[in-house]
Write a structure and sequence with these properties.
The chain is an alpha+beta fold and 95 residues long. It is 16% helix and 24% strand. It has a domain of 28 residues.
Amino acid sequence: MMTDPSDFGPAKPRPPDRGSLPDRQVALIDLLDRLLTGGIVITGDVTLSIADIDLVRISLRALIASIGTTTPSPWSRGGPLPVTSPGHPDQLPSP
């Protein structure tokens, strides 16, 4: 069973063609840095079928992003970091 792309809603309009882009070399590390900064989502479906009978369907979804993208920095909140007491790491010291 194939999934029709129109099932996912209206397609986004494409920007007008402005001609070809100039030839530019991009280092692999720069490309990975840009992808991880914004994060990427990879999705896919795998269907195992015999004689047009779907036996197994696996939906694959992966979010790939740097930790700094998904988790805010504790220093950006402006407050001090909590300090645990040495004897009881699960309890915060009383003020």
